[in-house]
Design a protein that fits this description.
Layout: H1 8-17, H2 20-24, H3 34-52, H4 56-62, E1 65-67, E2 72-74, H5 77-89, H6 107-141, H7 144-156, E3 159-164, E4 180-184, E5 187-198, E6 207-214, E7 227-232, E8 243-248, E9 259-272, H8 278-314, H9 339-371, H10 375-410, H11 413-416, H12 422-430, H13 439-450, H14 453-473, H15 483-506, H16 508-513, H17 515-539, H18 544-560, H19 563-573, H20 576-579
Parallel strand pairs: 3-6
Antiparallel strand pairs: 1-2, 4-5, 5-9, 6-7, 7-9, 8-9
The chain binds flavin-adenine dinucleotide.
């Protein structure tokens, strides 16, 4: 049973509430007022629902095939036609630079599209999605010639992109990578093996452009000796380059997305940016990719929620414990009447809408941070993007997985069968906690890089913003019920930040032991701030949609925000009982 309605109304409400008007003040976006933006989002929503969703199960069942003779990879039957239609729709380049054929829309358009396309067909979405990050990396660090040669075809989707970091001996620890790049004339020859490369080989597009990390001869050891290269599958003169797929992984989910071993034997590559500074280009690519991976969490949470609600309204089991709610003409009531089914669905709904708000807020901040004419506003927005990106990636994927599991639970055995698709969504979502830097690595990035950066400036920008909202609304009747709870959540986050910072200075292991918990504390507190803002905005309007928003904010505050109590207690428990075990006791 395929159930999905693109969450257009919610996206519009969030944009109205969380700073999209600041984006449209920027000269580059003066043509993208809210109505124009929403027209783009609606069009994208229709495409995802009508074209991408029907191919989702086919991708899961058929999967991808590798031919060891030709080294070709073939994709599920519907995907080729779907890709052509996707390219024709020009949606993939919606938020990319107009100078090279993109639509030039604000980042919020890309995040909204990313949600709807992931919800309806995650495996397929990952293919054009990787091109987006590559375009951002080349826009920042590519030479003029590289931009001319590659950007337009990547932006329009004629070619697709990959990112090639992982090798058998190096996943998280990229300093261990050994792929070699040897200079030859105006280019380099690359030799080595990359593994688990998403959409590394396929039959959807004319060419595949790989962004590959490798070492030059005599490069320093570790992460400081890594350079980035563009390695096209088909060279610019039309000849076949020496990069071939060596096989595919068989995995738990995303069966329609090929995960490839990629072998390079004297493959021609072009240096991107400076020698040994490859991580800079890769980080530009990964920053946006980390946001879209975060989106995966709530995208699949949303479609699972819609599916579960449809089921729960139909399924009749038992009697409501409240006689007034019982339906006298039937023998059993629909399961949506039972408090525990509601508990599960509302946990999902309140966090899903909160995570959507968080991601779209960050999308707005990206544009403000890059292009606002006021230097201070630009700096503050950029600080918030840096601080919140690991939280989007990690909190949204962890919560998203839990949410899909709750949706499965809410509908019972049907959730575990293929008929209602939730089992596929659960399998497809799980990898999001692992790739693009595992969730714990995001937490280390948050506590080890983002918090100490520039004397704690990033965190100060965040806490100042939340405190200002609290101060301005202490007496506002419509949100007075939320403000004291938000204030104590923020105070506690401040305390945890101080504690972790102090401990981290004397004992980094102590801080690392609680980094993941700290990230979740931060994530829930941020959602509480955004829910208070949404409740305030909703209270100024009338109608069912807004009344439901306020109820959902109340649910979040009474049933999700208290999770921070136990997380805070665990953070204070520190590392002792974790590190007390000898290795042979495991
Ligand atoms: C389906 C799929 C698609 C992928 N796509 C791509 C792709 O397109 N391109 C690409 O380059 N890679 C890709 N990857 C690889 C992915 O990015 C890595 O799996 C990921 O970075 C983790 O590396 P690893 O699996 O080697 O785990 P490891 O690095 O071995 O980590 C294992 C565990 O140890 C923890 N750990 C590791 N180091 C530390 C530390 N210093 N401190 C604390 N904990 C630590 C990790 O958090 C994790 O829990 C993909 C993987 C999969 C499965």
């Amino acid at each position: 049973m395929l159930v999905y309605k693109a969450p257009i109304r919610d996206i519009r409400f969030i944009l109205e509430t969380l700073g999209y008007d600041d984006v449209t003040e920027i000269a580059a976006f003066e043509d993208f007022d809210l109505d124009t933006m929403m027209a783009l989002v609606e069009q994208a929503g229709k495409f995802c629902t009508n074209e991408m969703l029907p191919a989702n199960r086919i991708g899961d069942v058929e999967g991808v095939q590798f031919d060891p003779e030709t080294k070709d990879v073939s994709t599920p039957t519907e995907f080729k036609a779907l890709y052509n239609k996707f390219v024709e729709s020009q949606m993939g380049g919606m938020s990319l630079t107009a100078e090279y054929g993109g639509g030039g829309a604000p980042h919020a358009a890309a995040i909204a599209l990313s949600e709807m396309s992931t919800a309806t067909n995650k495996s397929f979405t990952m293919c054009p999605g990787l091109g987006h990050g590559l375009v951002e990396a080349l826009t920042h660090y590519g030479s003029d010639e590289q931009k001319e040669n590659f950007l337009e075809k990547l932006i329009t989707g004629v070619w697709t992109g990959t990112m090639c970091l992982t090798e058998p001996q190096c996943g998280t620890d990229l300093g261990l990578l050994t792929t070699k790049a040897v200079p030859e004339g105006d280019h380099y020859k690359l030799t080595g093996t990359k593994i688990w490369i998403t959409w590394g080989e396929h039959d959807l597009a004319e060419n595949i452009i790989h962004l590959v990390l490798a070492r030059l001869p005599g490069a320093p050891e570790g992460i400081r000796g890594i350079s980035a290269f563009i390695v096209p599958k088909i060279n610019l003169d039309g000849s076949r380059n020496g990069i071939y797929c060596g096989g595919l992984e068989h995995k738990m989910g995303i069966h329609g997305s090929p995960t490839c071993v990629m072998n390079m034997e004297d493959a021609t590559g072009y240096l991107v940016g400076e020698a040994h500074k490859g991580m800079r280009a890769m980080f530009v690519m990964m920053n946006f990719a980390r946001l879209t991976v975060g989106v995966e969490g709530y995208a699949l949470s949303e479609i699972s929620y819609q599916t579960a609600v449809e089921y729960c309204k139909e399924r009749r089991q038992g009697r409501s414990l409240n006689s007034e709610r019982q339906e006298p003409d039937v023998k059993a009531d629909c399961i949506l009447k039972h408090p525990d089914v509601r508990r599960q669905l509302l946990n999902v709904r309140s966090t899903t809408e909160g995570m959507r708000a968080l991601s779209l807020w960050v999308a707005n901040l990206i544009d403000i941070g890059l292009q606002h004419e006021d230097t201070q506003i630009r700096q503050d927005a950029d600080d918030l993007v840096g601080l919140l990106t690991p939280i989007v990636k990690s909190y949204c994927t962890e919560r998203g997985f839990q949410n899909i599991s709750d949706c499965m639970q809410a509908i019972g055995g049907s959730g575990y069968t293929v008929e209602w698709n939730i089992e596929q969504y659960l399998r497809d979502e799980r990898i999001a906690m692992i790739y693009e830097g595992t969730n714990h690595i995001q937490a280390l990035d948050l506590i080890g890089r983002k918090l100490p950066k520039d004397g704690g400036r990033l965190y100060k920008v965040f806490s100042k913003k939340v405190y200002r909202f609290i101060k301005e609304n202490r007496e506002t009747e419509s949100v007075v019920e939320f403000i004291p709870k938000l204030e104590s959540a923020l105070n506690r986050l401040n305390e945890a930040t101080m504690t972790l910072g102090m401990k981290g200075m004397s004992d980094p292991e102590e801080a690392a032991s609680q980094a993941s918990n700290y990230l979740n504390l931060f994530g829930i507190t941020t959602l509480a701030y955004l829910w208070a803002r949404m409740a305030l905005a909703a209270s100024e309007k009338s109608g069912k949609f807004y009344a439901t928003k306020i109820k959902t904010a109340r649910y979040f505050y009474s049933h999700i925000l208290p999770e921070t109590d136990s997380i805070y207690a665990i953070i204070n428990a520190g590392k002792d009982n974790m590190m007390a075990f000898d290795e042979d006791e495991f």
